[in-house]
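Encode chain A's predicted structure.
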Amino acid sequence: MDVSIILVSYNTKNLTKECIKSIYEKTNGLSYEIWVVDNASSDGSVEMLQQEFPEVKLIASKENLGFGKANNVAIKQSYAKYCLLLNTDTVLLNNAVKIFFDFMENPENINVGACGGQLYNADMSNQLSFGEFNDIEKLKRKALGIDQNVIRHRINRFFEKKVKGNQNYIYDARGRIGEVDYIIGADLMLRKSALDKAGIFDEIFFMYGEESELQFRIKKHGYNIKIIPDAKILHYGGASSANKNKQLDVEKMLLKGNINFFKLCYGQDAAKKAKFYYIIYYLRYFALRFFAPKAFSRLKTALELEI
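Encoded structure for chain A:
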């Protein structure tokens, strides 16, 4: 088997159906299988999959395992050469799986441990498809409000929206294959031999931060991470987390994931410093929002976070 395509579903029945349809419609030229790990959905996702896609390898969990742990369940059972982790709120726009596979199979790319494609918003504007590893210095600049990249990004956003009237600010317009720190987890092709060395997802995470921490480990084992813009994937974004989670709950998961990243990648002392700078950041936010209840809740979350 060339590729195991792994989807983790949580109350995204209709999106999951469209995602699987797009896989069948767009993917050819290689052998693949589809796995769906369902995180105890209550919207009929399991029944839909059993009825409409009986060939899909379905794992129906009795509890919500989160993102990384659910993916691990399928990764452990896969015998494919590669695992493509694909969000259920994605739709393949071209033969992206084959593009990933051919790239990874090229002997020149034997040291590439993971790759991903260009994500698009529903209006077909470019979506952020990769990221940079966070570190204490970056977080310090963010906390103090002196991060030039953030300032530049906000100015660009303002210019594009207010001055040009363009609501579709392009995050990633490089349009070429390039080395990146990590691929966004919505479409992440992983080389199984790299996972054998680096390990799979750390299950300390529930959601958010686990894909960057995994790729941090993959890079520590000497592999590269590549963005492949020719592979094109529509990503609606946030469908699972938005179902039953309020905005503050999502932000709590994000903060916890970020702290866990510091703890696992840089150590306990770094995690403590990270918490301190997040508190500073939320204190600034609290003041700038004139002590609004929502801002107070965010600050309280940072103060109460256990490391």
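The CA atoms of residues 31 and 190 lie 16 Å apart.
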